[in-house]
Design a protein that fits this description.
By secondary structure, the protein is an alpha/beta fold. The protein has helices at 11-20, 45-49, 69-74, 87-102, 105-113, 120-130, 148-161, 174-178, 188-194, 214-218, 237-246, 285-303, and strands spanning 2-4, 22-24, 35-38, 56-59, 78-80, 140-144, 164-168, 183-184, 197-200, 225-228, 251-254, 274-276. It folds into two domains: 2-85 and 285-303, Rossmann fold (3-Layer(aba) Sandwich), CATH 3.40.50.720; 87-276, NAD(P)-binding Rossmann-like Domain (Rossmann fold, 3-Layer(aba) Sandwich), CATH 3.40.50. Strands 8-7-6-9-10-11-12 form a seven-stranded parallel β-sheet, sandwiched between helices. A five-stranded parallel β-sheet has the order 2-1-3-4-5.
């Protein structure tokens, strides 16, 4: 069995894979691969053409938008993934980003580190003016998306910070949200109107690409916060820039952008009310172990004729 892997996975998952398969890490050898582990690659017809023996693609995480699923199915290639296993890690980052934006943590760090010859009294006076934050207790968090990540994020915000939570998805019902003590919004527009913080927790599809556009950003509460640790394609970055400069948005914190590692000249990075991290939502030792092991074991299942635990239907 030969497995193409040109990205990093947890060392224990790599060890297990290496015990039972030959690992191919060079694109020059990918044509020999029976299986592929995919974290951030785009796997479409051209890539599949280069791997004529491919029988299974294991998506290292929840989002399957990096694989042309229809093309894989047409070619008889099984696609598996690892849903829910990194939900806690992403949810904790959602909360971290929200806190960072609400308390202006990153801007505080920038101010401390810059060269400044003024007196301590002058610097403290400026800091107190620029760094006035907001508390989360009693505020409303709106979750656009309410799968495992959205549910865990709501749980942390409710139990840990005393926030009220409201959620929306196209097929969400009040019966489902009641189990989590979360209100079901009738529409995304209603959610945006009442939320002090909006957290994106939905997968990226062609239908919702650019979901947070100029119109929806304009419907957010004045001074509210947008958090995105889902997919960069959900947000219109030009509209986001405009909203952060001119309102109504007060701050935004994004773990994902149109480029996972944006260029330094991206104008969003120059704003004091914007915080970015380079797609680290699932990058914890705990989540990487769980997801990596699930991918490796499911490759073994498919290659040995067993039904995998998490097939992409």
């Amino acid at each position: 069995m030969k497995v193409f892997l040109c990205e990093t996975i947890h060392p224990e998952a790599y060890r297990l894979l290496a015990e039972h398969a030959e690992i191919l890490s060079s694109w020059e050898m990918c044509g020999e691969a029976d299986a592929l582990i995919n974290r951030a690659l785009m796997i479409g017809p051209a890539e599949m053409d280069r791997m004529p023996n491919l029988r299974v693609i294991a998506v290292h995480g929840t989002g399957t938008d990096g694989v042309d699923l229809a093309e894989a199915k047409k070619r008889g290639i099984k696609t598996v993934y690892a849903p829910h296993l990194n939900a806690n890690a992403v949810a904790e980052l959602n909360v971290s980003l929200l806190l960072a934006a609400a308390r202006k943590v990153v801007l505080s760090d920038r101010i401390i580190r810059r060269e400044d010859e003024r007196s301590v009294t002058e610097k403290m006076a400026e800091a107190q003016l620029l760094l006035r934050g907001t508390e989360l207790r009693g505020k409303t968090a709106g979750l656009l998306g309410f799968g495992a990540i959205g549910q865990r994020t709501a749980e942390i915000l409710q139990k840990g910070f005393g926030m009220n939570c409201i959620a929306w998805t196209p097929r969400l019902t009040p019966e489902r949200t009641e189990r989590y003590s979360v209100q079901c919004a009738p529409s995304p527009e209603e959610l945006l109107k009442v939320s002090d913080a909006v957290i994106l927790a939905m997968p990226l599809t062609e239908e919702n690409r650019g979901f947070m556009n100029r119109e929806r950003l304009g419907r957010m509460k004045p001074g509210s916060i947008l958090v995105n640790a889902s997919r960069g394609g959900l947000v219109d970055e030009e509209a986001l820039l405009e909203s952060l400069k001119n309102g109504p948005l007060g701050a935004a914190a994004c773990d994902v952008m149109m480029k996972d590692f944006p260029e330094r000249d991206n104008p969003l990075l120059a704003l004091p009310n914007f915080t970015a991290t380079p797609h680290i939502g699932a990058n914890t030792d705990d989540a990487l172990y769980a997801v990596g092991m699930a991918c490796v074991k499911q490759i073994f299942d498919v290659m040995e004729g067993r039904e995998p635990e998490y097939p992409v239907e």
